[in-house]
Each structure stands twice: as C-alpha cells, then as structure tokens.
Amino acid sequence: MKKGMTYLPVVLLTAFLLLPSGMLYAQRDTIRKEVRVVKPYEPSLSGATKINITPVLGDTARYRPKITYSISPKPMMAPYNPRPIKPARLQAESVPKLYKSYLKLGMGNYITPLLEFNMSSLRSKDHVLGMYVRSLSSYGNVKLDNGKKVDGNYGNLKAEFYGKKIFRSATFDGSVFFRNDKMLYYGYNPLLDTSLVKDSIRQNYLNPGAQLSIHSTHADSNHVNYSASVRYDYFRDKYDHAQHGVNFSGSLFKVFSGKTIGFRADVLYFNSDLYPVGDHDANITVEPWFYQSTEEWRLKASIAGTFDLTEGNTDIRLYPRIHFQFRIIPGYLLTYLGMDGRMEVNDYLSMSRENPFIKPGLYIENTDHKMEFYLGLSGSLAPGTEYKLKGSFSLVDQMPFFINDTSDNLGNRFIVTYDDVQLFRLSGEFMGRVSDKFSLLLKGAFNNYSMSVLEKPWHKPAFEASLGAKYSLHDKIIVRGDFNYIGKRYATTPDSQVIQLKGYPDLNLGFEYRYRKILSFFLNFNNIISVRYQPWNQFPTQGFFVMGGFTYSL
Fold first, then answer.
1. Which of 151-165, 185-199, 282-296, 480-494 has the weakest average pLDDT?
2. Which pLDDT band holds residue 24 (cuts at 50, 70, 90)?
3. Strand, helix or coil at 28?
4. CATH number of the domain encompassing residue 180
5. From residue 233, how far is each of 215, 242, 365 by CA, in Å?
6. How many C-beta atoms lie closer than 10 Å to residue 138's C-beta?
7. How does the average pLDDT of the chain come out, rounded?
8. Within 13 Å of residue 131, how many CA atoms lie on the same side as its CB?
9. What global pTM score does this model have?
10. Cα-Cα-Cα-Cα dihedral of 266, 267, 273, 278, to 10°?
11. What is the pLDDT of residue 23?
12. Residue 3 domain-assigned (yes or no)
C-alpha cells in the first residue's frame, strides 16, 4: 500500500466529525438584515478610444502619370433637305359695312310719336356729307297738385345738314341747323280754381343758325397749329322777342423744346330788344397760356382777360388759371389741383334751354365766377375701370336763381333773382367695363350753397346722383337701365312762403332686340316708379311712360 493512501482515511474522518457541529450552529444562529435601495442601479460605460482599422501610409513621393493621345478628326455630314416656303399673301382688311341711312320710329302712351332719321355719305378720304332729323312730341295730360288734369303738350324738332372737307394740312367743318321747341305754361297756382285757354299759355321757340370751323392737322410739331370757328344763332319766341347771337373763337399754339405756348380768343356778341339799356351785349376774352409736361407731371398756366360790354358799360376782369397734375401710381392714381375763373354769359337762348318756362323776353345778367379752387383724384382700380373724384370751392357773383313770377296770380312763369354765393361742391364718377357684355356708369354730386342775401338757393338740389348700366348678349339682345335721383329743393309761393320740393327718383329700363344688322326692335319704360315729380315748382311731369318701335338701316 502506498504511503498516500495511508493518510486518506484519517482526513475523511476528521472532516466528517467537524461538519455536523458547523451546520447545527448555522441553523441555530440565522442572520437577519434589511437592505434599502436608495437609487436604482444605472450601468454606465466609460469612453473608449477608437483605433483606426485602416492603416494610413504617409508617403512623400508623388507619381504623375504621363498620358499621350492624338485626334484624328472626321467630318460628319448631316443630311438636310429644305422644305419650300409658301409666299405670303396680303388679304383684304375686314372693314365693317356702313349704311347710308338710319330710321327710328316709335310710339308711346300720352300719344307720344318719335321720329329719328340720319343720312350720310359712305367712307371717303376727303369729305363727309349728311343730314339729321329728330322729332318728339306728346299730346297727353298732366295732373296738378289740386287734382285737375291740364293739357301738357310739348314738341321738340331738330334738323341739321352737315359736312366736312379734309385737306392735306387742315379740316373744314360746316353745318346749318334748325330747332323748334313748343310747350305750354300749364303749371298755374294750384290754389286757384280756374281753367286756362291754351292759346294764352302757348310758347314757341325758334332757333335757326349755322356754324363753320377749321383746324390744322399737321403731323409734326414744327408748324404752328391753329383752330377757328364762328357760329350764328337766331332765336325768337312766340311773343316776337328776337335775338341775334354771334360766337367767334380761335386759338393757335407752337411747341418749343418740349414746351408749348399758345393763345386763345373768344368773342360773343348779341343784338336784341331784351336789354334794358341799349340793344346789344358783347363779351371778349383773350388768354395767353403755357404748357409743359413730363412722364410724371403736367402743368398749364394762363391768365384770361375778359372785357364785358353790357348796358353801355365796360368791365375788365382778370382770371388766373393754373392746372397741375401728378402721377402717383402710373395708370392707377393721378392727382390734380388748380385754380380757375371765368365770366359766364347768360342770354335768352341759354336760359330758355335750362328752364323753358321762363317769362317771355326775360333779360338775365352775366355770372362772374370770380375764383375756384379745386383738388381731385383720377385713375383706374382695375383694367377697364376709371374713376374721378373732385372737390372745389368757388366764389360766384350774380348767380341766377329761378322763382315763380308773383306779379301774376297764376305764377306759371319764372323770373330770375341773383345772389353772391360761396359754393362747395364734391363730385365723383366711376365707369366700369366688367366685360364685353356688361358696363356701368355711376355719378354723384353734393352741393352746399352759402347765400349772401337770399334765404335759399331756389331750385338748386343739394344732392344728385345717377347710375346707368348696359348688358349686351352676343350683340343681339341689349338691356339698358338707369336710375336718377335729384335731392330736395326749395321754392317760393305767390305769398313769398318757402316750400320744399321733395327729392325724386327716376327709374328707366330699355330693351333692344337686333333681329338683323339692318333691323331691330326696342321697348323703353320710363319713370317706372310713376313718381309725379316737379322739376320746377307747380310743373309736375307725366307719370309712367312706355314707348316701343323699331329701327331700320339702308
């Protein structure tokens, strides 16, 4: 037996004897301890240093390869076969056909016939000849404020023969005209219980005359441009009050290095039995002027001298005139300002056109527009639109106002009273062409009169506005409409009491059907609201009015 094997039983015996006593001790004394975890364990790794996997070799030697090459060019021929081009041909320009004559016939209620006729020569390079005739009359009644119906007949006739001759450097125009206006003084005092004899209230205005004019048509600015015209009017009423009037006007101007210098002259002469002193009246105005413009602004300045020969006296007045405009946004916004003044010549003809119910043979003084200051804006909001805004302040002497003639109990004729006025006026206008089919026009004005003597600005509205629209469907069906409004006005009664004339609206609508280019039909409705308004005190108008007819061209 080996020596190592002798000690093995002794070792095993010793371990066996010691083991039970240790295990018993451990079971009797159990270890009890509490462990508190303050913070969860968060493992972390320390930064590591990256070792380059790919070794870098720092070589200082440089190797440059030597390349040699040669080019052997060969032309490449691209085949090209030109295609023949057809020669251009000029086609005849499309020119719309013109017709020599135009006829319009219509009939409306209140027995209102309409005739309109125009005839002219066709296209010509050197002349135009033609004639125009228009007649409109009515034979209906008008209802007064007292409920009575009176005869409100009227008739308007216009006729004109005109011509134009075109020369190489000038154009000559001429015309001979005739106008006849008939009406009745039907608006008597509604407080009276009476009936009027038609012949005693009839009025008939005759106005034949002629006009000649010539103006230069030079194509360049090296020439002196000129224009001149003369007009003669004979005016007569039913009561043998006659007036001869001659109006001559002429101007010339010349351009010097972008600046324009010109001169204008106007002469008005009247020979009549209406004037209280003498039998004639003359007004002469001379005005030298200067004009200059750039792309941003324009300036025109002048001074007008007026010689007023009235009632044997000669009054001389000077009116400085300045107009300046500046483009703020080209095409969209332009502003202008300036001052103006003039002498307004009032005669029997012009006053009867404004108020046909004036007293026969009435003489009216001239009006002196001493000074006017104005400021305005104009431009476009979008393509096809245009707007204008203007504010002005004027000093006007001897402004005429119409009042009923109190010397006659009927009060059916108007006379004139005068006053010196400070006038503030604000006006605006907008025109829009929405498309080829639809367009509209809007206007409005506000007037403020500061009187010196008179209590009110008789028959002058403080506000007036109008709106017009047109719609065209394929140039076949045309629809037109307009709305007008005149604000309140003031008038006097025969016992000098102030009364207020109400503002009135006026709505009109028209239709046209173009059956062919030479034939069309129309139907118009006027005063659709049927308001019997009074443009002049005691003179109401007819109510709802409708007219239909046709037009024909040859």
1. 185-199
2. very low
3. helix
4. 2.40.170.20
5. 21, 11, 19
6. 20
7. 87
8. 6
9. 0.79
10. 120
11. 46
12. no
Q: What's the CA gap between 42 and 46, in Å, rounded? A: 13
Across 171-175, 398-402, 433-437, least confident range:
433-437
249-270 average pLDDT score = 93
Within-domain flag for 96:
no
91 burial via Cβ count (<10 Å: 0-12, 13-18, 19+): exposed
Cβ contact 247:234 at 8 Å: no
Q: Cα-Cα-Cα-Cα dihedral of 18, 20, 22, 27, to 10°?
A: 180
* Cβ neighbours for 73, distance < 8 A, ≥ 6 positions apart: none
Would residue 62 count as lying in a domain? no
Task: Report the C-alpha gap between 362 and 235 in whole angstroms.
Answer: 13
pLDDT digits (tens, 9 = 90+) for 436-450: 889 999 999 999 999
Q: Is residue 213 part of a domain?
A: yes
Residue bearing the bigger pLDDT, 42 or 121: 121
Contacts of residue 241, Cβ cutoff 8 Å, sequence gap at least 6: 272, 273, 274, 348, 360, 361
Domain carrying residue 346: 103-553
Distance CA 539, CA 189 (A): 10
CA atoms within 13 A on the CB side of 325: 19
Q: Total structural domains in the chain?
A: 1
Q: 278 falls in which pLDDT band (50, 70, 90)?
A: low
For range 196-213, the mean pLDDT: 93
> Which tokens hold the place of 327?
């483009």
Measuring CA to CA, how many Å separate 369 from each of 40, 389, 395, 458?
Answer: 103, 21, 6, 19
| Rounded alpha-carbon distances, angstroms, from residue 99 to 104, 129, 160, 175, 518 | 14, 13, 19, 21, 8
Q: What's the pLDDT score for residue 50? A: 60
Among the listed residues 417, 272, 287, the one whose alpha carbon sits nearest the alpha carbon of residue 343: 287
